[in-house]
Amino acid sequence: MTFPRASGVLLHPTSLPGPHGSGDFGPAAYHFVGWLVAARQKLWQILPLGGIGPGNSPYMSSSAFAGNLLLIDLATLQQQGWLDEADLLPDAGFSAGRINFNAVVPWRMVRLQKAARRFAQAGGAADQTDFAQFAQHHASWLDDYALFMTLADIHGTGDWCDWPAPLARREPQALREASLAHGERISFWKFGQWCFYRQWKSLRAYANARGVKVVGDAPIFIAYQSAEVWARQELFELDAQGRMRVIAGVPPDFFSATGQRWGNPLYRWSAHAAENYAWWTERVRCIFELVDIVRIDHFRGFAGYWEIPASEPTAIRGRWLPGPGAALFHAVQAALGELPIIAEDLGIITPDVDALRHEFSLPGMRILQFAFDEAGDNTNAYLPHNYERNTVAYTGTHDNNTSQGWWAEATPALRRQVLDYLGADTDHDIHWQLIRAASASIADTVIHPLQDVLGLGAEHRMNLPGQGEGHWAWRFGWEQVQPWHAERLARLGQLYLRE
User: Fold this and answer.
1) CA distance 457 to 26
2) How far apart are CA 460 and CA 155, in angstroms?
3) What is the mean pLDDT of residues 110-121?
4) Angle at CA of residue 476, ends 470 and 478, nearest 5°
5) Mean pLDDT on 470-474
6) Which of 13, 90, 335, 404 makes a 20 to 30 Å CA pair with 283?
7) Topology of 6-495 in CATH?
8) How far, in Å, CA of 363 to CA of 344, rounded?
9) Which residues of 420-454 are buried (b: 16+ CB within 10 A; e: fewer)?
10) Does pTM top 0.85 for this prediction?
11) What pLDDT digit, counting tens, does each position of 130-155 carry?
12) What is the pLDDT of residues 192-202, one digit of tens each?
């Protein structure tokens, strides 16, 4: 599917300002939509909306379907009578510019649990009905998710395969007994998802009504410690005890000399094919309930994926195996129709990956930070003059340094090549020069990370691939945003027909 010519901004909701330790679906999110409108941006790209996993990564969620409860706006719950004003007083451990996850997570969860109890005791009839309808509509994943999260709480930090064997094997009698014994905890997890979905639905509708579409993100893999792996063990490459035999990652690349050992379980693609990719079809359907456009992360994994023995400490030793290819996308398309999907085709891209993307007319991604090298190779596919129209262009992504941070680390030779290409005499506002180059390109879609719009340095980057800790915590403040930022973006949109 080709997209209309447009531009947008990349910002995950956790990076929004706000008084409760991390960004959420509260007033700052609505204000940000207003800022996008003022800047004449048509797209708001976010990262995965699922709960965070190891290292606080949104790419290692405990569910492929559930939302991140940390994004729930607590002030809305207070307005509904489920929290008190005193519950909203910020914790001393909160930081304006970074998320202190050690402080934020327990603080927010205590308040969500209180709100769930209040709702159960005194929720209005209309809300109770809406909650019951939500639970029924999403029962196909919500029941397993709520029970999984409850059992994970009870059994501590260990993986689900270390739970009592009847629960790990999902014996029906053991599941029934657990459901009866822990009804209140199970209801809490369902309540949290209801709040998440309801608040996000309102925010997305607000954005859509103002001409802003949301670009979501679907990780190809899911975490081992997740409801779906536990609930559908036959769909993953696990041994007889439910442990991972092999794991996901990528071989040595631009980001890491030892590759990236992600640690996700790999799919048993033969089992998915046997059910005509029904699990994947349902997953895609649910994602499009939340967003308007979906960026599929690690698209090349559908053509071929890197299998690493679970015993290996790095991603160096592995092998390429064929993915499901076009069969998966034909099955999804037959069930759901043609969908607006972006293929994240970065990394080691072979002809079969390009062929798969082109077969379904999916736009690929081009990153300006990858376009330049000291050799001055003008055939580099990431240089704007080599783009095709059905492309989404970025200065950088959440995995890259900021443009200012990248520039600070660039060698003199690389800097000369960049300035020569841009036709610039100086590196003043290099981030804006790169934004302009992407905006002027033939690419139908251009996305600007907010860090680059604001000209922020390396300390503001979102993630550093290959490092498991210390990332995903960046937040901005409205004091960093000046009227001219929106005006300059709007002017570029006018110049290059992206408004």
Assistant:
1) 27
2) 36
3) 98
4) 165
5) 94
6) 13
7) TIM Barrel (3.20.20)
8) 9
9) ebbeeeeeeebbbbbbbbbbebebbbbbbbbbbbb
10) yes
11) 999 999 999 999 999 999 999 999 99
12) 999 999 999 99
